[in-house]
C-alpha cells in the first residue's frame, strides 16, 4: 500500500522537477519555456498574493458568482426537469424552446448577457446559471423517467396525492441521477464564470489571471490558474460528498456478500 | 377517517365491500379481463388464483384504483372507484418499500401522509415493528433486509393506518418455502385483529386454501369459479384443491 503512495508522490514530484528544469534553463525546444516562471518564482508570488486583501476579495467574488448561478440553476434545473419528466403538457410547451437553446455554449451568450443585464455582475451570474442549468435539467429529466412506477403506486395506495408522490418518491428517488448532473454542472459553471470574468469582470479570479497576463506578470498567471484549479476541486468535492451523503441508501458493491 | 391513537386500541374500521360490475380491464387494446361481475363481501379474505397472464394482478390494480377500467365499474361500498385511496392499501410482491427510508420510516409513511404527529406515528410504527417481529431492525434500510423481512415491513406499512381493505399482489411469491409458511401464519395472525377486507392474489392453490374465506379462480378472461372455503376442514381441502386445480 505505501509502495503505491510512493509511486503517486513520485509522479507528481517528477512533473514538478521537469517543469523546474525546463523553466530554470529557459528551454526553447519546440515548446518555449523561456518566459514561463520557475517554481520558486511561482511560490514567491503565491506567498505575496496570499497576504493581500485583493486576493481574498477576488476569491470571494468568484465564489459568490458561482454559488449564486449554480444555486439558481440547481433549483430551476431540478424543477424544470421534474416538470418535463412528468407532464406531457410541459414537454410540449418547453421542450422545443429548451432544445433550441441547449446546443449554444453558455459562453457564447456573453454579448447578449452584457446587453440584457444592467450590471456585468448579473450578466456573469446569468452565464454561470445557463451553463449549469442544462446538465442539471437533462440529468433530472432522465432520472425522473427512470424512476420505477412501483414506488409511486405504493405511495398512492397508502393515500398519497400528487404532492406526496413528489416529496416522498420523486425528489428522493431522482437524487442519485441529479447529482451526476450537479457534478457536470459545477464543472461547466467554473469554465463559464472564469471565461466571463476574463471578458467582462472587474474582480474575480478569472479577471485577475487575465490581468496578470496583460501586465506580463507570468507568475501571477500561474498562481491564478492554480487558484482556479483548487476552487474547482474544492467545490466538486463538496458536491461529491453531499451526493454520497444523500444517496447512502443505494446498493453498494461491498454489500453484495450479505 | 379513523384517528390512530397508539396504545389505545380503537375498534378497527369495518371492512370495505366491493362490487365489480361488467368490469373489463386491459392495457391498450388487449383486454385481459372481460365483463366480470363479482362481489367481495366486507371483512372476507378473498384469494384470487389463476395462471400467469390471467389478469390477477390487473384485477387487483383496478380495485386499488391504479388502473381505470376499460369498461364497467368497480364499486367500493357503493361508490365508484376512480382513484387510489388510503382506505385501500396495497402490498406488492417485492421492492414496494422506499429504499431510502428505514424500516420504521417506511412503516410511518401512511401516517405521515395523513398528517399524524411525529410522536404518535413513531409510537404506532414501533408497535407494528413488534407485531411483525422486526424488533431491532427499526433503523435498517430495505437493502439490508432479507426478502421475508422486507415483506414484513410492507405488511406493517399497509396495516398501520388501519385501512378498510388490503390488496395483496403475490406478496410471498418471491420467498422460499419456509419463509413463505412463516409469513402466511403471520398474516393470519395479524388479520385476526382487523375487520379489513383482504383480496389476496397468488398462483399457489395451497396458499389460497390456507388463507381464504373464498377462492376465486381467474381464467379465460373472466372468473371461472368461486369456492367457499369457510368451515371446511383439512380433510375437505384435498377435494377442494382438486376442483380448483381443474378450473385452472
Overall description:
The complex is a heterodimer of chains A (258) and B (248). Chain A has 258 residues and is mainly alpha-helical. Chain A has ten helices and no strands. Chain A is globular, with a radius of gyration of 23 Å. Chain B has 248 residues and is of the alpha/beta class. In chain B, 33% of the residues lie in helices and 25% in strands. Chain B has helices at residues 56-64, 103-113, 118-131, 147-159, 177-191, 205-211, 234-247, and strands at residues 18-27, 30-40, 45-50, 71-76, 79-80, 88-91, 165-169, 197-202, 214-219, 222-228. Chain B has a six-stranded mixed β-sheet with strand order 6-7-8-3-9-10, sandwiched between helices. Chain B has a four-stranded antiparallel β-sheet with strand order 2-1-4-5, covered by helices on one side. In chain B, strand 7, helix 5 and strand 8 (197-202) form a beta-alpha-beta unit. The longest helix of chain B has 15 residues, at 177-191. In chain B, 43% of the residues are buried. Mean pLDDT of chain B is 90; it is low at 1-8. Chains A and B meet through helix 7 and helix 8 of A and strand 6 and helix 2 of B.
Largest interface: A-B, 23 and 32 residues
Query: What is the terminal-to-terminal distance of chain B?
Result: 40 Å
Count of helical regions of chain B: 7
Strand content of chain A: under 5%
Main pleated sheet of chain B = 6 strands, mixed
Average pLDDT score of chain B: 90
Give the strand order, joined by hyphens, for the main sheet of chain B. 6-7-8-3-9-10
Report the helical percentage of chain B: 25-40%
